[in-house]
Automatic annotation (TrEMBL):
Species for this entry: Mycobacterium riyadhense
Gene3D superfamilies: Farnesyl Diphosphate Synthase
GO molecular function terms listed in the Swiss-Prot or TrEMBL record: transferase activity, transferring alkyl or aryl (other than methyl) groups
InterPro entries: Isoprenoid_synthase_dom_sf (IPR008949), Squ/phyt_synthse (IPR002060)
Protein name in UniProt: All-trans-phytoene synthase
């Protein structure tokens, strides 16, 4: 989930003087972290967008690996983990197709969308469908 936070909040972190994307990957992609005069991430060659896609794919792999551990948790813990994972995966899923979504604002889900994910997670964790 932390990788999703890093991708979702890359602009916010940069404005606070923090960079959590690996330096070697930034260099390999020819990406730079900078904001333009409007305070938006400046990525004219879409190098940063390409790096964000790679990081999102890696994060998705980590979610898949982590979810293998869900059956080892008690049902209450399963529900919480499934709900949080569901919310963060929904955020993450939006980044590869539209990396520019993070250029000018913090990406988020609506309250109703979060509620639907939480209800589905509770049902799944307690043996129902979801």
């Amino acid at each position: 989930m932390q990788q999703t936070n890093i991708l979702r909040d890359v602009r916010e972190y940069l404005l606070d003087g923090r960079i959590y994307l690996p330096r070697d990957e930034l260099e390999r992609f020819g990406a730079r972290l900078a904001v333009d005069g409007r305070g938006e991430l400046d990525d004219p060659q879409a190098n940063l967008a390409a790096l964000l896609r790679l990081c999102a794919a890696r994060a998705e792999d980590w979610y898949s690996l982590g979810l293998r551990l869900i059956p080892h948790l008690d049902s209450r813990s399963r529900a919480c983990c499934l709900a949080m994972t569901g919310i963060y995966r929904q955020l993450l899923a939006r980044i590869p197709s539209s990396p520019a979504l993070v250029n000018d604002r913090r990406l988020s889900l609506s309250g109703p969308a979060k509620a639907r994910i939480a209800v589905a997670a509770l049902a799944r964790a307690t043996g129902g469908r979801g």
